[in-house]
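=== RUN LOG ===
request id: a7f3
mode: sequence -> structure
chains: 1
length: 260
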Amino acid sequence: MKLFSIPNLITLGNLLCGCLAIVCAFDGQLVWSAYLVGIAAVLDFFDGFVARLLNQHSPIGKELDSLADCVTFGVVPGIVLFKLLELAAYVKYQSMLAYTDFAGGTPAFEKPWWVWMAFLIPLFSALRLAKFNIDTRQSESFVGVPTPANSILICSFPLILNAVPGADLGAITGYEAWFLNPILLLVVAVVMSYLLIAEIPLFALKFKSFGWKGNEIRWTFLIAAVLLLLLLQYAGLPLIIILYVLMSVVNNFMKPKISS
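=== RESULT ===
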């Protein structure tokens, strides 16, 4: 049994990024957590690509990949969302409480009850990954939102907030203020938890060939994603994930029905 194959080392790099992202999140460095999740997402793509290229698929690689993803794309976005909800609590109650009370000094069970809803994300991510490992339907496509996509959506929020030049948290008044709205953050926690395990077929960005025919939806999505990033920068990231889900749903309706 070969433990330290090249694909497995890449997967361990994904896991290391997740561990570092957790440390950054608890230090209040949510932007660095987001960057590390982005690096991990690239590594998560390349471990499978390299495994196919080198013909080094193995059962241990599959299990290791899920374990790494559970940390990086399950635990990390849960913690990031938890810290964002803490910040939202500060913005909401700043006239009564100092930020330090929420950030470090307040005992756990004196925090608003709704900040704990963030940990739905790690729980449902673990369910999604366990389901993926035994679901033979997901070899060429996905059923439910992949954990990296969910993690990118959540971790884009600190990047969007950080892009506001010199703004005090309580003084953000543009669209960015929505990303510190506790109602929005709680909706994200509940809706994305459901979408992780929902029976919704989603296309995968796996190209058997790079031509247009047969890859129309993939190329259309990638072009749209690039345009959103160019036009909106970090604010385009959550829109890209939403577009991915919507395009998949539309694609499902457009597929010809097989008569029985």
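=== NOTES ===
Confidence is low (pLDDT under 50) at residues 95-103.
Strands lie at 141-143, 201-203.
=== END ===
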